[in-house]
Design goal:
Blueprint: E1 6-7, E2 10-11, H1 12-29, H2 31-40, E3 64-68, E4 71-74, E5 79-82, H3 97-107, H4 120-131, E6 135-139, H5 142-157, E7 161-165, E8 178-181, E9 184-187, E10 202-205, H6 210-217, E11 222-227, H7 243-253, E12 257-261, H8 272-276, E13 283-286, E14 297-301, H9 303-315, H10 331-344, H11 347-370, E15 376-380, E16 383-387, H12 396-401, H13 405-416, E17 420-421, E18 428-430, H14 437-454
Parallel strand pairs: 5-17, 7-10, 7-11, 11-12, 12-13
Antiparallel strand pairs: 1-2, 3-4, 4-5, 6-14, 8-9, 13-14, 15-16, 16-18
Protein name: Aspartate aminotransferase family protein
Keywords: Aminotransferase, Pyridoxal phosphate, Transferase
Cofactor: pyridoxal 5'-phosphate
């Protein structure tokens, strides 16, 4: 690589120098986090509670001491404005007061009993009202909820195959880790410990390709399509105009059910992207933000699918179904979900978030244009992302081609050292009801200064 090489419009020599300076600055600023990271390395695999906590841009993990609203503090006493928000887990702010009060109240009244709590029926009623699906069940994460949904729908349809889009959705269900490489479905190499070939039962096509979808479903042997309405796992990929309307017609024609995961796209409004855009999924999943950050998830079915699911269960031999865990729908999570749904995830909260996200997206576009960079900005409600291409990608292959982990990490670390946190994966930013216009202005100023250093 020569001194005058550019990547995505960035002078790469300057980028590398900036990266070295930012790493040195991070190390100097965070001695307590460094000491805690060293201590953690003695008894934790990879030195962190979960291995992906090493995927941030930092030389060692940043240790958080407390988080409230749109900000948090680290172990060294530095304050940060948080535009990551737990990668959607805290999309409505850290420790929303209503949820904190509900948790404190429930804490003295029990956590789990393997029986319904008084909050269960009100939560299910609100989910039905908000999302338009009448029947619901609960899990501890969206990944678990999707595992359960796939099991239910395979049983209900008598079909074993599922279909996903190239680039995946954001969860960790084993079945979905299938990519297209030169048009050929292959199991993702990074999936650890998988003992059977996923391509036997998982079909993969490109997002926004109706002809490929039609061809993949032509055998009438696919139980369901599992998708986010907007792809987010590989960077945001928006559906082309009319795509989902046409795709749903194709699915109905072939008897294939549609499962929409709204865990990230709940940024679109109180009823998620599907409700806001007139989609009619057969099943819907929402994970981490639904309880204000408490581990929980929900999944719902239409009346017809619920009837088929119940029939499949009743027709099966007695015994363990493989669906659900002991702590699913525990009293603690149900209390948090009820408070969050009724008092936090309100129309008014979304109005605040949408206005801030509009300000953020406009400011990002302005800075990118001012520095002459061939980048674009994509927005889905309160969720905004800048991407290293002049036009938004149309499918997973295009989105994957524009990713640049090194450049992402340089930008992320530059912002982090100035008290601004964005997600470690891609360039995604969230705002919450407690985010202020001044917070957004600070982020935009930091982003502009970073671009100046790079260009």
């Amino acid at each position: 690589m020569t001194d005058n090489t550019t990547r995505h419009g960035v002078n790469w020599t300057r980028a590398q120098a900036l990266a070295a300076a930012e790493r040195a600055d991070y190390i100097a600023r965070n001695p307590r986090s460094q000491a805690l990271a060293a201590r953690a390395g003695e008894h934790m695999l990879f030195g962190v509670p979960m291995h992906w906590m090493n995927d941030w841009s930092t030389p060692f993990a940043l240790t958080v001491s407390e988080a409230r609203g749109a900000s948090f503090k680290d172990a060294d006493g530095h304050a940060y404005t948080d535009f990551c928000l737990g990668d959607t887990g805290a999309m409505f702010g850290h420790a929303p007061p209503a949820v904190a009060q509900a948790i404190a109240h429930q804490a003295a009244r029990g956590y789990t009993a393997m029986l319904p709590s008084e909050d269960a029926a009100p939560v299910a009623e609100e989910l039905a009202r908000r999302f338009g699906l009448p029947y619901w069940q609960f899990a501890l994460s969206a990944s678990d909820a999707n595992r359960f949904v796939l099991r239910w729908l395979r049983a209900a349809t008598g079909r074993s195959k599922i279909l996903v889009f190239n680039g995946c959705y954001h969860g960790t269900v084993d079945d979905v880790f299938v990519d297209l490489v030169d048009g050929v479905p292959v199991q993702r190499d990074s999936l650890l410990g998988q003992v059977y070939p996923l391509t036997q039962q998982t079909v993969v096509v490109e997002f926004n390709d109706l002809a490929a979808l039609e061809a993949a479903l032509s055998g009438d042997d696919v139980a369901c399509v599992l998708a986010e309405p907007v792809m987010t796992n590989i960077g945001m990929v928006l559906p082309q105009p009319g795509y989902w309307e046409a795709a749903q017609r194709i699915l109905r024609r072939h008897g294939t059910l549609l499962v929409i995961d709204e865990t990230h796209t709940i940024s679109s409004g109180p009823g998620g992207y599907a409700r806001a855009h007139g989609m009619a999924p057969d099943a819907l999943v929402v994970g981490k933000p639904i309880g204000g950050g408490v581990p929980c998830a929900v999944y719902g079915f239409t009346a017809d699918v619920a009837r088929r699911v119940e029939q499949a269960k009743r027709a099966a031999p007695a015994g363990h179904s493989g669906v659900g865990t002991t702590l699913s729908a525990n009293m603690f999570a149900m209390a948090a979900m009820r408070a969050n749904l009724e008092q936090v995830m309100t129309e008014q909260a979304y109005e605040v978030m949408f206005a801030l996200a509009d300000q953020l997206a406009a400011g990002l576009r302005s800075a990118i244009a001012r520095h002459g960079l061939p980048w674009c900005v994509t927005q889905v409600g309160a969720r905004t992302e800048f991407q290293f291409a002049p036009q938004p990608p149309r499918n997973g292959s295009e989105a994957g081609a524009i990713l640049d982990g090194e450049l992402e990490q340089i930008i992320h670390l530059y912002l982090l050292n100035r008290g601004l946190l964005i997600t470690p994966f891609h360039n995604m930013l969230l705002v919450c009801p407690q985010t202020t216009a001044q917070d957004v202005a600070r982020l935009l100023d930091g982003f502009d200064r970073c671009l100046s250093a790079l260009v």
